[in-house]
Amino acid sequence: MPVSSVLPVLALLPSALAVPLIVLSRRRPALRETWSVLAAVSQTLIVMAMVPVVLSGVAPISRPLSLAPGIPLELRADAAGVFFALVASTLWILTTIYSIGYTRAERERRQTRYFAAFAVCLFATVGIALAGNLLTFYVFYELLTVGGYPLVIHRETPEAVRAGRVYLAYTLGGGVALLAAVAWTVALAGHGTFTAGGFLSASGASPVVLWVLGVLFVVGCGVKAAILPLHTWLPLAMVAPTPVSALLHAVAVVKAGVFGLVRVTGFVFGADLLADLGAGRALAWLAAATIVLASLAALAQDNLKRLLAFSTIGQLSYVVLGVALGPRDAFTGGVMHMASHALMKITLFFCAGAIAATAHLDRVSQLTGIGRRMPLTMGAFALAAFMLAGLPPGAGFVSKWLLLLGGLEASAWVGVAALLASTLLNIAYFAPIVVRAWMPAASPGVVAEAPATMLVPLLVTALAALAVGVAPDALAPLLTLARAAAGGP
Amino acid sequence: MRAHLPILPLLISLTGALVIPLVGFAWRRLCWPLAVAAAGAASAAAIAGVGEVVARGARRYPVGGWAPPWGIELVLDPLSAFSAAAVATVATCALLASGPGATRAYGMALPAFYSLALIALTGFLGIIASGDMFNVFVFLEIAAIATYGLVASAGGPALAAAFRYIVLGTVGASFYLFGVGCLYALTGTLNMADLSARLPATSASPLLVGGIAFAGVGLAIKMGLFPLHGWLPDAYTHAPAPITAFIAGVGTKAAAYAMARTMLYVVHRPDLPVTTALAWAGGVAIIAGGVMAARQSDARRLLAYSSVSQLGYIAVGIGLANEAGLAGAYLHLLNHAVMKALLFVAVGAALLRGGRPWLPALGLDRTMPLTAACVVVGALSIVGVPPAGGFFSKWYLIRGALDAGEPLLVAALLAGGLLAVVYMYRLTEAVWIGGAAQGAGGREAPASVLACLVLLAGLTIAAGLASATLVDTILVPAARGAL
Predict the structure, then answer these.
(1) Pairwise CB contact (< 8 Å): B392 & A68
(2) How far, in Å, CA of B440 to CA of B447, rounded?
(3) B100: Cβ–Cβ under 8 A, 6 or more apart, which residues?
(4) What angle (nearest 5°) sits at the alpha carbon of residue A45, between those of residues A39 and A48?
(5) DSSP string of A293-344, one letter each residue
């Protein structure tokens, strides 16, 4: 039941206000970073305040202005939106704290631009999460593309500039496909308001048109979701500072693409229409192929961050697979995996960043014995890698179990096989790192962990992922929200 | 005063053009403030005209009380009021930014420079206000001759550019005049309202077809529609830096307005493929302009070809001739004026501070961060990233093309966006990253230029956020008037 409320707009305010405040306090780093932390905390609190409201069946909605005649800028907090906003905002707090330690340890330049762009990205991410119609979604989606660019090219090395070029070419190109899809949908259906169960089946469009529309949507969202073969930008973007890779290239930007597919499958097309068209099964195959191929590519990586990027590409397609299959369990598992992958992958990136900033190592082959020098960091790494493979009791298991149940219900054997193969491949590319980390090194160093600003966030996320695995609703009602997003109890 | 709102912007601008040489003779320093004040007052009057139209509806204004067909008639309707407000406002901003550069470059000739600029503005406003086909020609020529003078005043390569501009501009004006002559021979009137009443009844004779074709080609040359854009890139590249934003921002818009007015309100013959031809020409212009823009290495020439592409958008919208398409075209008239003026002012600021227009040497980030930030806003608007204004005009254009069932035009509109990504990326990268070592000048732009940049950047965003209101209150009525 939609109820007019100021809360969704309020959720956008902290990050919007943070941008000018950060720029204005550019000469006072302490104050500048205080603004970042304050914005992240207040944004999280406002999103949290919406959770009980949403669970009681009410959808707070605000329409601050009109984008086009008949199409308002609509912010609506439904279960799926609040779920994504909650994950992104909470992890923004930890990433900001981690960033403070990281930027100082690595002596990053242009920190004002860095923190300001981060705030822009989180503003756009929450906007994407709470967007109530397609045009609103598109507006924030493009803003996220633009806001992410300064972070990709942050170091302004030729390599970073090249990565930035590829990033923009892919994401803005995908944006054009998405714009075509959005405009066409609005022209067909007369509106673009997300509706549980979808609204396109009522438009009476022919299957051919719907297929073309579906392909445009998948290309539009698939770039950010890094579906094969649209994934090329993501491994290149790993030249960005590690907190950027951690929050944007494992949580905010890539999950925005995945979340777009959640909206398209569940709230524009609807499971029934996708099944009638056979489009859901096609998308599921694409996702299954992405899962396996990306995991195989991860096996071949020596650069730790690139390995994590390929792992992300594979894991993102878990979500795509879940929402494409159709059964409620699969959809729930897909949405749930947005949170569990976020917690596990951000831990892994935090660990990679801690190793790079403290021991100045970024290749897997250099990590021999690192576990003895940084036991807590590598302990968290091992825990997160174990859970990412989907083994119980970890956050990855919760979502993977639901995905498998859904896959079996839909008799999608290819998808089930891909998920099981992915577990083995995950073990295959993570086990060597963990084993190597505790092998005796040629020159054993002393124990030297990263500073507390970096160590604490990575321990928190690792333990949070474990807690979610043991009791999915322990920290926040994540599973309940995911079930509600899938339209169930 | 309210009774004279249709002619007021014109009169103010013309008065400014006459007063400036007199005052400037004694106090040269006053020329710039006077020009900005005159343009600002004209723009205030034009905006008041928008309010008048929204509140009280369209109005015809016989100049001097002489009724048509003998007297001259001006028209204040949603389309002319909106276009006049857009042109006058952007012209004011461009003139505001011209001061430091013009003062340095012109010295003694400053009164002539600003007088010419205001005469050109008078011409643009006259084209828009006129309710009579022949007076459109007169004002086209007034604007064109003043603009030739402005372009040529830079000397050197600008002389060749201005000569080319004169030749093509005169051809365009002659074509238009010949076309109007044909229509006059056919109907015996030059008044737009009378023409629109009599033309639908006439048969599709060679005189009618020829009249429409000549007038259309003439206006297409004037608005720089590909492949008749030959004068435009050189003129924009070599025009004096302080006035390029003015010429590029508003120069082609009055002609685009005249095109819409002539083809939709005066002629309005759905049985002839007038609008279809215009839409397809626009689609080709979008692609061709974009491809050429992507190949340039001079920032000014890149922006000029970008204009060729963006004018294609306007032509597509006019050619679609449905409500969404027209709303998009009219909105793009405003948005393109704002964003192109913004980008030319920024490049002009870099030149003023000793920078060079070559992309590899344009780095502004270190020395002129605010200018560089404004370039990003302009670039985002040209690419069509929300919430910048450029996105919203594109949205209506795409909707219009979808409503008309023209998937190829949709593709052209979208491909234009991709090409804009390429050429605007090259500009933005040059400004932010490229040539950071050489860098321009050493200081941020002068306060007046910065104020103008921030104003235009604000307008770019505001035009986006307020687009729904604009479309509802004034652009849909303007489009309905044509249909």
Answers:
(1) yes
(2) 17
(3) B242, B352, B446, B448, B449
(4) 140
(5) HHHHHHHT--BHHHHHHHHHHHHHHHHHHHHHH-SHHHHHHHHHHHHHHHHH
Rounded mean pLDDT of A290-317? Answer: 93
Length reported for chain B: 483
- With residue A130 as reference, give the H or E element that holds it: helix A111-130
Chain B: which residues have CB within 8 Å of chain A? Answer: 380, 383-387, 391-392, 394-396, 398-399, 402-403, 410, 414, 417-418, 421, 425, 429, 433, 465, 467-469, 471-472, 476
Q: How far is CA B26 from the centre of its chain?
A: 33
Nearest to B465 among A65, A180, A186 (CB): A65
Residue of B nearest to A145 (CA): B385
HEC assignment per residue over chain B: CHHHCCCHHHHHHHHHHHHHHHHHHHCHHHHHHHHHHHHHHHHHHHHHHHHHHHHHCCEEEEHHHCCCCCCCEEEECHHHHHHHHHHHHHHHHHHHHHHHHHHHHHHHHHHHHHHHHHHHHHHHHHHHHECEHHHHHHHHHHHHHHHHHHHHCCCCHHHHHHHHHHHHHHHHHHHHHHHHHHHHHHHCCCEHHHHHHHHHHCCCCHHHHHHHHHHHHHHHHHHCCCCCCCCHHHHHHHCCHHHHHHHHHHHHHHHHHHHHHHHHHHHCCCCCCHHHHHHHHHHHHHHHHHHHHHCCCEHHHHHHHHHHHHHHHHHHHHHHCCHHHHHHHHHHHHHHHHHHHHHHHHHHHHHHCCCCCEHHHCCCCCCCHHHHHHHHHHHHHHHCCCCCHHHHHHHHHHHHHHHCCCHHHHHHHHHHHHHHHHHHHHHHHHHHCCCCCCCCCCCCCCHHHHHHHHHHHHHHHHHHHCHHHHHHHHHHHHHHHHC
CA distances from B21 to B34, B96, B198 (A): 10, 18, 45
The separation between CA B136 and the C-alpha centre of its own chain, rounded to angstroms, equals 15
Contact B425 A67 (CB under 8 A): no
Residues of B with Cβ-Cβ distance to A172 under 8 angstroms: 383, 385, 418, 421
Are B398 and A179 within 8 A, CB to CB? Answer: yes
Q: Which helix (H) or strand (E) holds A79?
A: helix A79-105
Q: Tens of pLDDT along A24-73? A: 988 888 898 899 999 999 999 999 999 999 999 888 999 988 888 888 89
ipTM, two decimals, is 0.90
Distance, CA of A460 to CA of A381 (rounded, Å): 12
- Beta strand residue intervals within A93-230, DSSP E: none
A:B CB pairs within 8 Å: 71
Chain A residues closer than 8 Å to B365 by CB = none
- Kindly identify which residue of chain A lies nearest to residue B379, measuring between CA atoms: A146
Chain B residue whose CA is closest to A177: B414
Q: Dig out the tokens for A230 from the structure.
A: 């649209």
Q: B386 and A138: CB-CB below 8 Å?
A: yes
For chain B, the structural domain boundaries read: 289-483
* Pairing label, strands A2-4, B73-76: unpaired
Structure tokens given for A260: 């777009």
Closest C-alpha to B236, from B297, B162, B170: B162
Nearest to B101 by CA among B164, B161, B153: B153
Residue A441 pLDDT exceeds 80? no
pLDDT digits (tens, 9 = 90+) for A175-221: 999 999 999 999 999 888 998 888 888 888 888 999 999 999 999 99
Tokens 């202005």 locate to A65
Ramachandran quadrant class, B268 (left: phi over 0; alpha: psi -120 to 50; beta: rest): left
Q: A187 to chain B nearest CA, in Å?
A: 7
Mean pLDDT of A331-346: 93
